[in-house]
Amino acid sequence: MSPREQDASPLTRVTILGSTGSVGQSALDVVRHYPERFEVVALGAQSNVERLAEQVREFCPSHVALADPAAAERFAGLGLPAECWSGPESLERLAALPVDAVLCAVVGAAGLKPVLSAVDAGNRLALANKESLVMAGPLIMERARARGVAVLPVDSEHNAIFQCLRGHDPGD
């Protein structure tokens, strides 16, 4: 039985990668409006210590990651209760935590490894990172199918395409 199946919590447990950017902040607005539906397990960012600290104070995640090691050192000095990981691979570690969904809103090529990590861990993936699909779309989707992982587009452009194609054979 997976950790998600063992947890009888009615809350959807989420990890948000890119939480200090516009998409990540929008996702946290949803959590803020529906606290009875979501639990923020982990937050990841590149280097925005101040905004991440505000988010940790409000949403109380157990884990955070800052890809920039100097920023992670500054964050650790704040004495907040979340466990802080640092370095580029820290976002991959967050993506592999057992949660119900991972939102990847990391900009550019930096999002690819966390996306693969989330899929390999069996976490449902909400994807706002176009670059990952451009660089490795077939690989991501092959791994997702093999593990029974849903990949849901979040960004407006690829969500529109997803909605148009839903229910149609991709060969059509």
UniProtKB/TrEMBL annotation:
Gene3D superfamilies noted in UniProt: NAD(P)-binding Rossmann-like Domain
Gene Ontology molecular function: any one: 1-deoxy-D-xylulose-5-phosphate reductoisomerase activity
Gene Ontology BP, a term: isopentenyl diphosphate biosynthetic process, methylerythritol 4-phosphate pathway involved in terpenoid biosynthetic process
InterPro entries associated with the record: DXP_reductoisomerase, DXP_reductoisomerase_N, NAD(P)-bd_dom_sf
Domain 1-deoxy-D-xylulose 5-phosphate reductoisomerase N-terminal stretches: 14-137
Membrane-spanning parts: none
Pathway in which this enzyme or protein is active: Isoprenoid biosynthesis; isopentenyl diphosphate biosynthesis via DXP pathway; isopentenyl diphosphate from 1-deoxy-D-xylulose 5-phosphate: step 1/6
Pfam families attached to this UniProt entry: DXP_reductoisom
Keywords: Isoprene biosynthesis, Manganese, Metal-binding, NADP, Oxidoreductase
E.C. code: 1.1.1.267
SUPFAM superfamilies: NAD(P)-binding Rossmann-fold domains (SSF51735)
Signal peptide: none
Cofactor or coenzyme needed: Mg(2+); Mn(2+)
Catalytic reaction list: 2-C-methyl-D-erythritol 4-phosphate + NADP(+) = 1-deoxy-D-xylulose 5-phosphate + NADPH + H(+)
Family according to the record: Belongs to the DXR family.
Protein name: 1-deoxy-D-xylulose-5-phosphate reductoisomerase
Organism of provenance: marine sediment metagenome
